[in-house]
Specification:
The protein has six helices and five strands. The mean pLDDT is about 90. Helix 2 (about 80-100) links the parallel strand 4 (about 70-75) and strand 5. The chain has about 190 residues and is α/β, with parallel strands linked by helices. The termini are far apart. Helices cover about 45% and strands about 20% of the residues.
C-alpha cells in the first residue's frame, strides 16, 4: 500500500549495537498490518562509533522512505553489565535522534510492558512474542525473520498501537465530558 492508504504508520525499533531490529506497522481503520521488518547487522564493524553512525543512518533512511507518524522503541533493560547498558543506551539514543531530526514523536516501552501487551505475560520469551505477533498480524512462515530482533521491533510497534487505542486519561478522567464535569472552573464559557 502507498503511504496515503494508511491512517497511521508506526516504526518500531529494538535497539542494539550488534543487531538492531526494525519494523514498520501500517494502521488502517484501527487494523494493524506489517509493512516491512528486518535487522541491521552491526557486528562486522569493529568501531563502536561507526555502529552508532550506521544505526542513525538506517533509522533516518527508514523514516525518509516510509514517513512514519510515530516511533515505538524498546527501552534498555537494567542489567548487571554497566558497559553493555551504556552501549545499548547509546544505540537507543541515536535511533531516537534520527526520529527527532524528522519530527517523529517517540514512545518508549520497557521490554516487560511490550511482552505483556503482546502475550499477556511480561516474562514471555522472544520466541513467544514472535509467535503471538505472527498470529496477530497473520504473517506467513516466509514473512518471519531469522533473527528475533525484527519481531521484537514489530512487537514494540504493535504495543504502541494497542496503547493508542486505550482511552486517554487526564487526572483519572477518560473523556473531555468527564474532565469538564469535574473541572468546571477550568473551562472557559463562550
Amino acid at each position: 500500500m502507498a503511504r496515503e492508504q494508511w491512517d497511521k504508520i508506526i516504526i518500531g525499533i529494538d535497539p542494539g549495537t550488534n543487531v538492531m531490529g526494525y519494523a514498520l506497522l501500517g494502521i488502517r481503520q484501527k487494523k494493524p498490518s506489517l509493512i516491512v521488518m528486518g535487522v541491521l547487522k552491526l557486528s562486522r564493524l569493529d568501531d563502536h562509533y561507526m555502529r552508532l553512525r550506521r544505526i542513525y543512518d538506517r533509522v533516518e533512511a527508514l523514516i525518509a522512505e516510509y514517513l512514519p507518524d510515530e516511533m515505538a522503541i524498546e527501552a534498555p533493560f537494567f542489567g548487571k553489565n554497566v558497559q553493555s547498558m551504556l552501549k545499548l543506551g547509546r544505540a537507543q539514543g541515536v535511533a531516537m535522534a534520527a526520529a527527532l531530526g524528522r519530527q517523529v514523536p517517540i514512545a518508549e516501552y520497557e521490554p516487560r510492558k511490550i511482552k505483556l501487551a503482546i502475550t499477556g505475560n511480561g516474562g514471555a520469551s522472544k520466541e513467544q512474542v514472535a509467535a503471538m505477533v505472527q498470529r496477530e498480524l497473520r504473517l506467513t512462515p516466509e514473512q518471519m525473520p531469522d533473527l528475533l530482533d525484527a519481531t521484537d521491533a514489530l512487537a514494540a510497534a504493535l504495543c504502541h498501537h494497542y496503547e493508542s487505542l486505550k482511552p486517554v486519561k487526564s487526572n483519572g478522567h477518560t473523556s473531555w465530558a468527564a474532565f469538564i464535569a469535574h473541572n468546571p472552573d477550568r473551562v472557559k464559557k463562550p
